């Protein structure tokens, strides 16, 4: 078991948020509102689940298929900010994001924890993909124009250390893109009546899972600022698609509704199914 402090505030000033009869639990930071696992499951068990879910195989390809529309939307947004350069996709999985960043405008690099997925991404997209963590990859200083962390910040052992490493390898003025689920949306979707209606059980959360963090928008912005980034833009993006056309239509209608509300007030960001945050590396 591993006990940790809040990854944003680096303190242990928290309240218990969820217990489910296991030695693990989720707690909420009193200061920034980030929810994180402490104590949390061992790295070995967490990595085994990630390999089973995202390693090369049928589950990974199903996940890849469901993500295509959102990745295309995110690529279009990113290209409004930057059109060429050195791209690093951290947690690149099977490499699907590379589809929208072709050579010769882009030189594609990836980091993927799972060797089987890393090998597939490297071969399929002619990319240089390192199997391991971004810190283990040891890229040169100020090397990348764009770094992406798509739907993966929940799983990393130490988000602060990873973001500090990104700051080292990204060029001054370079862009960092992070995709996350809105905190409030994630919990409404994952516990209670809505979870029962969609998944036929009352919760899909487990304190000993590989999901380690759910950042509040305020907490994530604070962490980025501490690591040398400033937010340059925030966008509401779509959820992964499913085999149910009704569910897809409902998800898209909800995305449009939240996007409209977000234009009125940014406080609705936490209700977003997914959002893409773009931050600029300060000199």
The level of helicity is 25-40%
Text of the CATH class: Alpha Beta
Mean pLDDT: 93
- CATH superfamily annotation: Vaccinia Virus protein VP39
Q: How many domain units?
A: 1
Percentage of residues in strands:
15-25%
In whole angstroms, the N-to-C terminal distance is 39 Å
Task: Report the CATH topology name.
Answer: Rossmann fold
3D shape: globular
Unreliable spans: none
Please work out how many helical segments DSSP would assign. Answer: 9
Task: Spell out the blueprint of helices and strands.
Layout: E1 14-18, E2 26-29, E3 35-37, H1 43-54, H2 58-79, E4 85-90, E5 106-112, H3 115-125, E6 128-131, H4 134-137, E7 144-150, H5 159-169, E8 170-180, H6 183-190, H7 193-199, E9 213-214, H8 217-226, E10 229-237, H9 245-264, E11 274-281
Parallel strand pairs: 4-5, 4-7, 5-6, 7-8
Antiparallel strand pairs: 1-2, 2-3, 3-9, 8-11, 10-11
Would you mind describing this structure in some detail?
Strand 1 (14-18) and strand 2 (26-29) form a beta hairpin. This protein is 37% helix and 23% strand. It has nine helices and eleven strands. The protein has helices at 43-54, 58-79, 115-125, 134-137, 159-169, 183-190, 193-199, 217-226, 245-264; strands at residues 14-18, 26-29, 35-37, 85-90, 106-112, 128-131, 144-150, 170-180, 213-214, 229-237, 274-281. It has one domain (14-281): Rossmann fold (3-Layer(aba) Sandwich), CATH 3.40.50.150. It is α/β, with parallel strands linked by helices and 283 residues long. The strands form two sheets. A seven-stranded mixed sheet has the order 6-5-4-7-8-11-10, sandwiched between helices. Strands 1-2-3-9 form a four-stranded antiparallel sheet, with no helix packed on it.
């Amino acid at each position: 078991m591993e006990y940790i402090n809040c990854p944003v505030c680096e303190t242990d000033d928290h309240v218990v948020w969820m217990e489910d009869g296991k030695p693990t639990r989720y707690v909420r930071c009193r200061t920034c509102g980030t929810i994180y696992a402490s104590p949390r499951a061992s790295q070995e068990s967490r990595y085994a689940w990630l390999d089973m879910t995202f390693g090369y195989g049928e589950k990974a390809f199903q996940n890849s298929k469901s993500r295509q529309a959102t990745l295309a939307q995110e690529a279009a947004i990113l290209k409004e900010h930057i059109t060429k350069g050195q791209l690093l996709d951290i947690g690149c999985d099977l490499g699907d994001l590379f589809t929208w960043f072709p050579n010769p405008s882009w030189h594609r690099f990836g980091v993927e924890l799972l060797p089987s997925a890393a090998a597939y991404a490297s071969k399929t997209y002619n990319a240089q993909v390192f199997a391991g963590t971004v810190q283990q990859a040891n890229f040169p200083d100020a090397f990348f124009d764009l770094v992406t962390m798509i739907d993966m910040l929940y799983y990393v052992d130490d988000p602060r250390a990873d973001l500090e490493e990104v700051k080292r390898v990204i060029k001054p003025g370079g862009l960092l893109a992070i995709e996350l689920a809105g905190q409030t949306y994630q919990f409404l979707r994952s516990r209670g009546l809505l979870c029962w209606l969609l998944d036929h059980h009352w919760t899909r959360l487990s304190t000993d899972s590989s999901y380690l963090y759910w950042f509040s928008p305020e907490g994530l912005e604070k962490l980025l600022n501490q690591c040398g980034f400033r937010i340059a833009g925030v966008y509401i993006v779509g959820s992964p698609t499913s085999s149910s056309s009704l569910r897809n239509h409902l998800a898209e209608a909800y995305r449009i509704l939240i996007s409209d509300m977000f234009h009125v007030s940014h406080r609705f960001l936490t209700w977003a199914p997914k959002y893409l945050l773009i931050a600029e590396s300060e000199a």
